[in-house]
Write a structure and sequence with these properties.
mainly alpha, 53% helix, extended
Length: 492
Amino acid sequence: MTAYPFTPSDAKSLAEQRENPVQFDVIKDFADGFATENLPTMAIDYLINKQDFPEDETYNPKEDPQLTNYTDFYDLFMFSKSAAESTAIIEKLKKNAEHNYASPWYHIGKITGAFTDPSTLLLFSKFGQSAKIFGSAFTAEELAKQMIEPTRPDDYVPWVVAGGYGLPFIMNRMAKGSVGAGTQQKVIDADKAYHAPPKTMTQEIYEDGKFINPTDRRTTGSVGAAANEQKVQPTLKSEFEGEKFVKSNLGIFGEDGPWTNVFRLTKSASKTARTMIADILDTPLLKLKNTKEYGFKSTDASIETKLRMREVGSIEAMKGIKEQYLLYINRVQGKTPKTELGINLHNRFNGEYMSLQEFATEVTKTRLTKMQHDIPEVAAAARISDEKVYKPIGKDMQDLGIRKLPIERELAFWKSTLETMVKKGEGSKTFKSKVDGQTSQYSRTEIQNKIKKLEDRLIGAEKLIEDYINIIYIKNAIEKNKNLFKDIIRED
């Protein structure tokens, strides 16, 4: 593979490029955003550029050679009536990729284009403020935009329909300025529930299945002066009460309903059950212990939150790989795309330089060659993934003994089997598989060899695997040769 030298002048040029502030073309960015959202502008462009293509009855998008490299965007060409129309759609895709989506002026132009659509005028008339009238006009405009612009995302439609009918309805209700007596009473009840002192509990308290005295306090191991300076510890009863959620006043839709397992667990007489439900919730709900009466004690991070925090390394690695890819294309091609869409589509169809997907594939392969590669950016990206992802995960695996555990279990099984055979004077042992019902026979020598191999593997499990990559099982390949797959899984 050809290696391109990264000279000091290239490094200096790249550093200067990074130090310069990002420049936005106010007029161009605003105009691009405005043109993609304003219906009159889109209609004029449609008529001027003669985008009403004559139908070709023999045309089939699946057989069009110019769409070979656009299989990921095939949904845009499904209703194309001619090769000329498909060509126009391709040109629009290329033009859209040139838009500076990172510019705030682009989004300001897009918002301005939406607010200057004809339907907006209805909001200034009493007739047009009706949810039915405005929603119908707003939806009709979006459908017209979908017809005019084939590359416009379809997921705009449900949002436009919801906003067109929902927002006027809500605003008209709010404009009346009246709040029902039932709603007012719920607000009052919620305020009292939040600020009221904790209720006296008469039920027994259990922790880990054992009854505990609710008046006891936690003890600490401090002695001497340190013990005298400690704050008064809350009673076990107070700790137990604090794990209860603040009343939501949702009635049957909340803690009084039959389907709210979360609230039922918080009413349990077990403190473990109360704390467990908070540990598994994605977003912690307000508990009594979070209020003033219980000392504003915070809730620990949930399991979901901790799992998300473990994704930080993967996200940083992906950013690092993308930065190295930009360095690569800047070095070999002299410029870099400005948008995410441009980066993802860059070099996908030219075959001369690597695309981002091909670059990432080379990064994975480089892990098997001790982080060495002819392209320096690929090697650097491989080292980033190693430092941010694989080494931290490997260290956790070593600390938890994950790699050693299955080896130790299998080793203990064969040692126990061999010991039993020696006591009974047996020369071989037969086992029947619970998976396929096949029987396998092992002699003493074979079992001793297995034990030796497992002991060697156990020694090797003491250190990290330097060239580890993720194992991916392809379902179609497995189904074609199930016996081979079973042999691979069973292999020591």
